Every structure is written in C-alpha cells, then in structure tokens.
Amino acid sequence: LLKARDKSILTKLYNHYEGNLVTFFLIKTYGNRQAAEDLTQETFYGIIKAAPNFKAPQFVRFTIFSIAKNKLADYQRELFRNKKKTALKNEIKDDNQDVIQALHHKQKVLLLKLAYESLNPYYQEIYRMRFIDDKKIKEIANHYNKTAKAIDNILVRIRRSLKKEMMQLANNFFKDEEDG
Is the pTM of this model over 0.85? Predict the structure, then answer.
C-alpha cells in the first residue's frame, strides 16, 4: 500500500512519525522551531517521492529517519553556505569601507596641502612650526617675539582660513566634475 502511495497509509505514517521528526529536528537545529517544522514537511515530501521504492515494511522507520538525516544534512550545508556568503559579503563591504576611508583621507590631505599653499608665508611658517615641527605655542611666540595668546589667535585664524579654502577647493572640484 505504501508503494502505491495510499493516502490513508501516508496519513497514518505522518500522524505516527510527525512528533518524533519534529523533536529530532528541534534537537538538531538547536530549538529552531520553524526549521524543524520545515524539515519535517520536506521529510514527508521525500517519503512520498520515495514510497514506490520502499523495500520492506519493517524498514519504514529506518527509511524515514534516513530521509530525515539527509534533509538535515542539506539544511546544514545550505546554512553553512549562507553563512560563508554573508561573511564574504561583509568582508568585501569592510574592504570597500577601508578603501573609501583611505580615499577620503587622501582627498583631505590633498585639500589641506592646496589650502596650505594659499596661505601667506608668515601663516605657513607658523602652521608648519606648530603642526609639522610640533613646536609648543610658547616656543613659536618666543621665536616671533609675540605672546602665546597672540600666536594662539593666529593659529585660530589659520585654521579658519584653511577650512574655508578647503571648502572652496572641494566645491570648485565638484562643480568642475558636474560641468565636465
């Protein structure tokens, strides 16, 4: 009757083994109820497909759980493949972020260099001493015979000028890109 895919026999098999299969899959999928139910359904679909090939009724339980183990193996392989794909996508995304960050950094450095060149020589020298040579404000003040507060005010003006110039350069660049 099983070989003929008799509906009443299949229903009895389902009613008899459904609870055992769900429990088996719940254990194997670490409590994932949705996966356990899906795998149970896939197992019974496999039983229906394999029914004409069943050899002896005494091996029905063995055959059902063999099909279940194969469905579980397929599920785990697919899960593993999906995790690898996700990890690869994340790695590519991280690599892309690194490249983008490096490009942004290079763009900022280039803009800073161009803006620096637009400063008057006096401001260039003070900027170089403070931020490139890493001199203290008091040392720069002594070098120019000014107060530390005066040098600090000059540095504020330099930073403002650099920021303004960098913004203009960036805007001009993007304007040129849009035009060209």
Answer: no
